[in-house]
Design brief:
The protein has 457 residues and is of the alpha/beta class. It is built from 13 helices and 16 strands. Bound molecules: alpha-D-glucopyranose.
Length: 457
Amino acid sequence: MKKSIFLLFAIFIATTSFAQKYQANWESINSRPVPQWFEDVKFGIFIHWGVYSVPARAPANADIGIYAKYAEWYWKRIMGNEKADVLFRDYHNKMYGEDFYYQDFAGSFKAEHFEPEKWADVFKRSGAKYVVLTSKHHEGFTLWPSEQSWNWNSVDVGPHRDLCGDLSKAVKDAGLHMGFYYSLYEWFNPLYHNNLEKYVDDHMIPQMKDLVTRYEPDIVWTDGEWDHPSEKWKSTEFLAWLYNDSPVKDRVCVNDRWGKETRGVDGGYFTTEYDLVHEGKIGDVEKAWEECRGIGTSFGYNRIEDLGNYMSSDALIDLLIEKVAAGGNLLLDIGPTADGLIPVIQQQRLLDIGSWLEINGDAIYGTRKWEGAKENKAENVFYTKKGNDLYVHCTKFPEKPIEVKGIKGAAKVTLLGTNAKTGFKKSGSKLIINIPQLSPVKNPSEFAWVFKVEGAL
Ligand code: GLC
């Protein structure tokens, strides 16, 4: 009898430990490759939406550095004493009065015009293949009915709606990958400050597992990790669960924000933000990485930004090309309004990108960076590769023939979006691409032009 029990126990241990492919340590967690689909999709939409979307204001043109222009930091700023904080607090007191608390904004976060299908349609038409919504930002307000966040969530107050669930369904129905941003820390949660272990065990981890099991996201995008090492956040324990036992274990992607020491080192794909690299150099590594930024100076909607703060469509398309050519993705942020609308200018920027991708998407989606780019540095010229084909991206229309070294062959050269064959001459491993004459009617783009060199590699 004893022998058979022991044997059964041994089999149970053997099978579960075999099934538990990833252990709760960074060496094991880091051994999981970033799922291929993430490197193929290239372009995603970040969404910062929360109680901060009600005041929706940061000093966009003050000389206070990038981080102090983030409108989603409104609560932290009005409670702080740094130079930038005074600007926020003076504004708040003037507009709302000293007795108006940040929490009082929650009732005005109504999302009354929120139509998730319309949002998903704009994202699809933008050419984006994935979406990442703030499920909970540093303010601790959850956009889903989290039982750990009683009366500070979008069902108990404000919209009285499961914003995460509604958008997740619409985005997935549109055929896009859905992801969630989740802030590990909460600025003013007493439990976070008084008993971190209890906060992690009883609040943070249960919330993260609830988010994953309820909505089965393809991306878990953590942030707000900088106060503590990953050990304190029990990040490897959560990731071992996510990779071994969660409903998304095979396809889920995560980033590198899991503790003060992990950015650019541990976790999933590496992240940069407004081109700021957290120690280490992104783009020189073979691991997948992603740049994120707003169209303007903020992630959350900042209603006092003007055109001068917003990147043009041309600049945004050039940014996408630059990041993809360097081997990364671009996660471009929008800040919806408190009543649930995407500001028209943000829609317009996204749809301009989409119209460009409609013609040139082959040169972006599923491509990888070309090693030969290093010996072909030229202003306003970028390269991507796919199979044996090379794509030559020109972010300014070239005035003279383009010379490319390190080319094996050239069966055909075409300018994407036109039928016109492009003349070229190959001598040895050097290719000269002649620039076609284009009438305004034939011009495929006003932003960037891509030559496809078939059989180049
Ligand atoms: C920073 C900011 C946060 C923003 C995030 C996006 O961590 O704290 O407001 O959500 O960047 O990358």
